[in-house]
Amino acid sequence: MQWVKVLGGLVGASALLGLGIILGHFAIPKGADAPAPSVSVSQDLDLEILETVMKQLDASKIRENLRELSREPHLASSPRDEALAQLLLQRWRDPESGLDAAEAPTYEVLLSFPSREQPNRVAVVGPTGTILFSCRQSEQNLTGEQGGPDVVPPYAAYAPPGTPQAVNAAKHGVAGVLVYTDPADINDGHSSASQTFPNSWRLPPSGVERGSYYEYFGDPLTPYLPANPSSFRLNPDTVSGFPPIPTQPIGFEDAKILLCNLQGTSAPAAWQGALGCDYKLGPGFRADGDFPADSQVNVSVHNRLELRNSSNVLGIIRGAVEPDRYVLYGNHRDSWVHGAVDPSSGTAVLLELSRVLGTLLKKGTWRPRRSIVFASWGAEEFGLIGSTEFTEEFFSKLRERTVAYINVDISVFANATLRAQGTPPVQSVIFSAAKQIPAPGLDGLSIYDNWIQYFNRSSTEYGLVPSLGSLGAGSDYAPFIHFLGISSMDIAYTYDRSKTSARIYPTYHTAFDTFGYVDKFVDPGFSSHQAVARTAGSVLLRLSDSLFLPLNVSDYGETLRNFLQAAQRDLGVLLEQHSISLGPLVTAVEKFEGAAAALGQHVSALQKDTPDPLQVRMLNDQLMLLERTFLNPRAFPEERYYSHVLWAPRTGSVATFPGLANACSRAMNTSLGSAAWAEVQRQLSILVVALEGAAATLRPVADL
Amino acid sequence: MQWVKVLGGLVGASALLGLGIILGHFAIPKGADAPAPSVSVSQDLDLEILETVMKQLDASKIRENLRELSREPHLASSPRDEALAQLLLQRWRDPESGLDAAEAPTYEVLLSFPSREQPNRVAVVGPTGTILFSCRQSEQNLTGEQGGPDVVPPYAAYAPPGTPQAVNAAKHGVAGVLVYTDPADINDGHSSASQTFPNSWRLPPSGVERGSYYEYFGDPLTPYLPANPSSFRLNPDTVSGFPPIPTQPIGFEDAKILLCNLQGTSAPAAWQGALGCDYKLGPGFRADGDFPADSQVNVSVHNRLELRNSSNVLGIIRGAVEPDRYVLYGNHRDSWVHGAVDPSSGTAVLLELSRVLGTLLKKGTWRPRRSIVFASWGAEEFGLIGSTEFTEEFFSKLRERTVAYINVDISVFANATLRAQGTPPVQSVIFSAAKQIPAPGLDGLSIYDNWIQYFNRSSTEYGLVPSLGSLGAGSDYAPFIHFLGISSMDIAYTYDRSKTSARIYPTYHTAFDTFGYVDKFVDPGFSSHQAVARTAGSVLLRLSDSLFLPLNVSDYGETLRNFLQAAQRDLGVLLEQHSISLGPLVTAVEKFEGAAAALGQHVSALQKDTPDPLQVRMLNDQLMLLERTFLNPRAFPEERYYSHVLWAPRTGSVATFPGLANACSRAMNTSLGSAAWAEVQRQLSILVVALEGAAATLRPVADL
């Protein structure tokens, strides 16, 4: 997720836009079998194997992976990106340390690139048309890595071409948008060359954050269909979700020249930053500044849409007992430039994990109970494209067979603590893993014990526990949880928030996100990378090898309770005024809790004696499929891919069920009996049916 | 399905309607555990048990069931309908012959009834307003059963109230519609009292066919949501799918008075019937007829919409080995009047089958491998309401666990031959059953051998075989196949088409569909009822008890081939002209065939040795879930509930994939590059993705 200040250089129509400056927030997606050991249908997690894997996950090998992965820029669909796909394929087909099978299927997807011939340009133009100042068109070459031909110049992907020029007091609305990252948001206020990379982890003055400005995810031309060559495609001119006007990102050193020369009244305090001047709202430049007052800002954007081939790489370890149950583990491969942190820190971990497991596999000492599928997704930076097309192509199969999806994109933002996001059923397995792994650099302390000091909540069920974040659409887990209803998680190591307020690691999506940057500033020694590899690896093994799936579905009860209480507290009166009762929702939540508790006891009972494998399979199917019961493809018709009634985007202010929250906030100011209030009732019914359906799935399977 | 001639008594605007007569076709939906035997995870179909069941299914008991079920009229939600629900509940809870558990959940649904106070009326009114002639308001009481207070007068359910009166040459469009069934369509031309019931099985002159005129199915106020008391409901005034104008059915004796007195030019030959006069098109009456030429027809409809409680009755026999796999067997309970044939002939069979299985269960001699769920649906005649609400309420659970749905609505239309409809995977199990059961009254001949003489096709795979019909929306299987994607079938005994051209049994939906009618004319001795009970019972046992599911998925290959060849033959040129290639579809069909064939070999191999139960379960999951892979909730947004890309309604004339056929027929006369042609391409892609997904589900489960 990305939070950037936006400097609109050109005047606009609305009260705010008319002032010639916009400060806003955009949410943008960031980025032939080996010998089989003797098989038993009761095969369970082998703690010795788990211990072996933990021991063999090697920090120095992760470092070497990262060096190779980030050696060159590997923008989606570029030759280097495809070369890395081949590298992964080769590793996963290695006779000593590879997997059972690996493939690199390709999709034909719509990407957006700046023009080589006509670089995008931002300039201040004098009254006579002479260029008084030009923003940098590339970042400063500070380490010799920012100058190469493969370093894509800063741009806003999918922003349309155009060359708007400001007209003072024009009443035609904003004609273009400039985006920059303020030192106040990314550098804890520091901005001088001496205080920034390569002298520190901070963003240099010339650093520019690239990104995709497409509103949805997946290939823009093939919503709900895999982007195969023969697939039906929308007309690019009619696609929705692209920015309406030319947009260009610039560095804060250039933003300073533009912003600190503006005239007009001061911007609100919340809009002020660390550029060392009072931010004015314009319109126009001040007379005593660097430019004549009647100068204008000219923006030339020459981005082009192109159909490109982008590969996913998939590798599988076939399950010994239940090969038709999949545990997926994935990360994207494409980066904006060298992408050492984003995404190569995750891919370096992925490769080390697959090496260790592959070696055990090839030696014949281990084969998981269930199948493990490793994935390296393409074109994530443009909008989770590779992973979304994959879910579209194999929807049915994945829906019926996938136990869980583990995503490790950026594995290390910083080296202070573990940070995990996921749906409630995965909480317990992440806790189990984190409790048995030492926290790097803190002898004796487990990752769990360290984690709970940074992120925690008090649970009605367990008391104080580390808090899991919920899953938005920031990485490739989005199509798995929102479109397929598969229990998903994202795992990383991250900051000590008491030490920095940086929105994200400072060189994010710039040409300064390099191997040296990671090696020197982010995780010297790679112990945090190793910690993430061990945590994700332990979670993976527990999911693939445990006889009983370690998905604690009853942990959903707490979420439902909290959502319900928020609805009662913050919406109850309003709903009563419109004679809408939360009673049926209360009953549904109680039914869920009752069914989940009873199932929990059933599991414990089964675990005592040696259960029949079929009984376990039936039980595991209930656990695996619970998440699916929360999907309703008709719940949010306007929200592409979002069908999970608990985790769809919430725009309403109340922290409750998204459909209810959003419908209420829309209905709030409409009259009694309006269509908006009918939608509130529809959303309530959709929710009740989903929760009752979830309870029915957890109840004894032969109950009527 | 119903084919009726419609006599619009009132003039209209359009070329045809303006002539004052409409002849059209409407499609209207016709409507504490027993001791367990020792359990083995390899439990397979027991042929001795099957033989015992076949022997114990008793024709005389079916006759007694029918006598009781059809003793009184039992219109949906009437006291007698609810009393029968209690009767079923009592049978299924019987300690000697009942099931493991039974319940009668209720939905609150919108039904439509005529007014007791203001009966619907059709009359001829003279110029001065005097009534010259009135149609009967009830059928003639020929057997003492047509007179009771519970005999609902003839009406068109969901037709709006109103009292339109013809105005000659009015240019305001048709104001009302009269419907009747012509003796040519239902009585092989015979119409006199002496030639009709009670003197033969034919429709008496006063007989009137009732029916629902609602366009969709399910409760009209709660699409996609179960009709629970708290569920969100649409405003009845804004519901779509109800007839726009007053409509009333009449008997052919009354239709004759109206039709044979019309003046004007003769109707086309195809519109002529057996009323003994030349059918004229009007407008108005002839001067030399029974009425003054300036007489008018007055229709008063006083139907009312009412929210009513309607019960389903559900009973379960819990599976011994795989209780979470369900074989569903159902029929509706509600009738228009006594409903001896429709639906009680099916319910009588259902009760006999559940008695025989329940007795074996309670004795402890048998328990099925999988769970068997018996269902008695409510309010089917109004639009498959009980079954649709059930699928809406338990969507997730049923989708994940249901092996197949067996529907036996009218079990005996006539006693000539078996007639089966279903999706390809059920063909083989119906054949297996039919080959081992003797055809009633034809010693030595099996039901299969008799069947193939009446309905057959030449299969590329098997040569000459009985032909299965495809499933429309004529009974409660519709929500299971179209909305849930569950392999479904409908089984009955029916006519010798060489002996009658009757559209359906003549007393269909009239007050003459009584026990005596069945006992005397339809199936004296009830041997055809017994034959259906044995066939459906054998299919049920094979599905519930076979270790390997007897669903032959490769039989889908033939359907796909036929659809593909029709597309190539009849649409190929047209598509080429618009540069749309069928190549990807050809490839997808080939992939399906290849995967299905390979899976078949895998099954045979497994069947040779004694396979691990988990392996069988994984294989059966592939077979069970194949049908689901053909669902796409976004394929037909305008067709409520229809999401099966192979069996959605086809309006296009080419007998191929419905989405493709319909899109082509719409695009046919539009210009190159129109939205309609884009839709053709979208439908092709949806189809290709579904078939590729189906193939992926059949391929080895650990293939990438």
Automatic annotation (TrEMBL), chains A, B:
Pfam families, per the entry: Peptidase_M28 (PF04389), TFR_dimer (PF04253)
Protein name per Swiss-Prot or TrEMBL: Aminopeptidase NAALADL1
Sequence ranges assigned to domain Transferrin receptor-like dimerisation in this UniProt record: 580-699
Gene Ontology MF: a single term: carboxypeptidase activity
Classification via InterPro entries: PA_dom_sf, Peptidase_M28, Peptidase_M28B, TFR-like_dimer_dom, TFR-like_dimer_dom_sf
Annotated localization: Apical cell membrane
GO BP terms, alphabetized: proteolysis
Topology of the protein relative to the lipid bilayer: Single-pass type II membrane protein
Entry's Gene Ontology cellular component terms: apical plasma membrane
Function: Aminopeptidase with broad substrate specificity. Has lower activity with substrates that have Asp or Glu in the P2' position, or Pro in the P3' position. Lacks activity with substrates that have both Pro in the P3' position and Asp or Glu in the P2' position. Lacks carboxypeptidase activity. Lacks dipeptidyl-peptidase IV type activity.
Main location: membrane
Domain Peptidase M28: 312-520
Stated family: Belongs to the peptidase M28 family. M28B subfamily.
